[in-house]
Amino acid sequence: MIAANAPDVDVLSFVRGSWFAMSFRRGITHGVPALIVLPWLVAGAIMAWDRGVRLRRTPDAPPARFGPLLLLSYLGVLTHPALDWMNTYGMRWWLPFDGSWSYGDSLFISDPWLWLMLGSAVALAAPRSRGASAAWLALAGAASAVVLRTAVVPLTGKIAWTVLVLAAVATAALGRPLTPVGRTRAARALGTAAIVYIGLMMAFHHAAVGDVRNALASAGVTEARAIMVGPLPADPLASDVVVETPDRFLFGAHDWLATPRARVGMDGALPTLELGAGVTPEEAAAAVAAARLRPDVAFYLVWSRFPVWAVGLTPGGLSVRVGDARYPSPGPLGGPTVIVPSPAPPTP
Fold it and tell me: How many Å apart are CA 272 and CA 249, to the nearest integer?
């Protein structure tokens, strides 16, 4: 568990502010060089704790072995960026050598079905006790509260979640205790199911991108610079679609149960640069160029995948807002806002 969370040591970057943290997160502590080093640090720290604390408390206990700890540390550390990469937030694998982002777009950032499969695997693999049962019941209740109270989770997802959680709780409460061999088999089966689920979601995503390309071709859209088919929470068969064109972003949806499966329309298109009343394209371009030099905006742009801009007039000059089209609700312009002073009038 420590190894699986070790790459998120970059959360300390928030001490320099949220915009800097956006530019730093999922970067150097998640990249390949760090993934080589972090397991050694984790295993070394556990070995130090074992020698300095655990064995002093229980001198007769067998000492921890560095080799198995290192292998477990690599497993934990490597699964973290692999799962991070699979959502629309993305990953930068090769920092500090290459800061390019890569996006798997296959899993929602908090996937309740993975929670259920992997959580059940750990719960079934653990020996049964009253304390453990109470803890797992509390965790199931907390996870259920998140799923059932989230408005974007569809009703079918909430029903499926409730049925599966109740079935798991009933099995644990009423079923016969598993033998050690049975616990191992149950954990392996659920772990395998999670891997199969992830593989299916990745396959669904790639097929959905092809459907979106076909829909764009049918609509006469020939200049699609990038396509994002982003999974929805608790609904593995439906996705949001964002298409980047030279001057705007198009939005749509993909649903494996719908006909046609992919829908992308011009209605609701978002211009990459929105001009306020009285702002000329030349003024807006100059204001955006000046805003890009501001630290907060520069930090935001490191993270932004689909930047959108809005330039308007203010008493102090031009207001420049930046956002990301990945997150159009409740509004894409959620990034920093800066005021670029109007140029001084020419001296007569």
Answer: 7
Question: Contact, 249 vs 306, CB < 8 A?
Answer: yes
pTM: 0.86
d(CA 6, CA 81): 10
Cis peptide before 260 (omega within 30 of 0): yes
Q: Contact, 7 vs 73, CB < 8 A?
A: no
Q: Which of 266, 262, 244 is nearest to 253 (CA)?
A: 262
pLDDT surpassing 60 at residue 345: no
What whole-number percentage of the chain has pLDDT above 90? 62
Mean pLDDT of the chain: 89
Contact 124, 190 (CB under 8 A): yes
Pick the closest to residue 316 from 335, 338, 333, 294 (CA basis): 338
The type of residue at 222 is T
CB 327 within 8 A of CB 334: yes
Residue 105's H or E segment, with its range, is none
Summarised one tens digit per residue, pLDDT across range 78-131 is 999 999 999 999 999 998 889 999 999 999 988 999 988 988 888 877 777 778
Residue with tokens 């300390």: 12
Q: Is the peptide bond before 39 cis (omega within 30 degrees of 0)?
A: no
Where do the domains of the chain lie? 1-104, 107-271, 272-340
The pLDDT, as a whole number, for residue 316 is 81
